[in-house]
Amino acid sequence: MQTAMNLNEIAEGFGNPSLGTQKVFRQVLEAMAHPGRIIELDEWVPVEGLDEATTAVALTLLDYETSLWTDLPKGASALQWLTFHCGSPMGTSASEADFALITRPEAMPRLEGFCLGSEGTPHDSTTLILQVEQLEACRGRRLTGPGIKGSCDLDVQGVPGHFWSSRKDARALFPMGVDILFACNNRIAAMPRTTDWEELVCM
Q1: Residues 131, 184 contacting (CB under 8 angstroms)
Q2: Which residues span the domain enclosing 130?
Q3: What total number of domains does the chain contain?
Q4: pLDDT of residue 2
Q5: What DSSP assignment string belongs to the chain?
Q6: What domain of life is recorded for the organism (predicted)?
Q7: Is residue 10, in this structure, part of any structural domain at all?
Q8: 34 assigned to some structural domain
């Protein structure tokens, strides 16, 4: 039996939805155009269980036409908030969803468990919104590829050990693959399928 949604307990969305989504959409595009670059978002709203950047990206990219898979537990206030403000149909499995919102990346599936698209329709793949513990422009991994001048360093904390190896495997399937948006506090960084990475060796 489905629990009725208490509208009085649901946090608000953007104060000005049109202006808020426009601002964040431009910043998401900037992040995707420059992989590894950390962008501080101008607009966000506080929601229990979600970082500010996660809520801002969700309000901007999700709607009733985009299916969503998330690891949020049933009954969570954050899940009710997403349902109310975004209206995304909840995907029955990670492999079928247009977007995946992951708040506990340490327990996330391997990337091949999401939709990677096909050679004919690579755009049908899942876009991951990955809420992580730390996002810093240093150490970690060295990123290269389109949109990056030379290289850039990005430290992402909180992802499981299999994340980087499965990301390497997915990169080899290009043009298929997944595009990733990391979210941490009020910051985002992108790692589209075109981006290569190597682990930095400490001397």
Answers
A1: yes
A2: 18-192
A3: 1
A4: 47
A5: -PPPP-GGGSPP--SSHHHHHHHHHHHHHHHHHSTT--EE-S----BTTB-HHHHHHHHHH--TTS-EEE-PPTT-HHHHHHHHHH-PPBPSSGGG-SEEEES-GGGPPPGGGS----SS-GGGSPEEEEE-SEEEEEEEEEEESTT-SS-EEEEEES--HHHHHHHHHHHTTTTS--EEEEEETTEEEEE-TT-EEEEPPP-
A6: Bacteria
A7: no
A8: yes
Give me the average pLDDT of each 10-residue run along the chain (203 residues).
Answer: 56 84 96 97 88 96 95 91 90 89 94 92 94 91 94 94 90 92 97 91 56
Question: CATH no. for residue 65?
Answer: 3.40.50.11310
Contacts of 138 (CB under 8 A, 6+ apart): 153, 155
Q: Which two tokens stand for residue 203?
A: 């001397």
Tokens of 79: 């899940």
Q: Is 4 within the bounds of a domain?
A: no
Distance, CA of 77 to CA of 88 (rounded, Å): 16
Ramachandran angles phi, psi of 188, nearest 5°: -130, 160
Residue 138 has a pLDDT of 83
Tell me, what's the pLDDT at 6? 58
For residue 5, what pLDDT is reported? 57
Q: Is residue 35 part of a domain?
A: yes
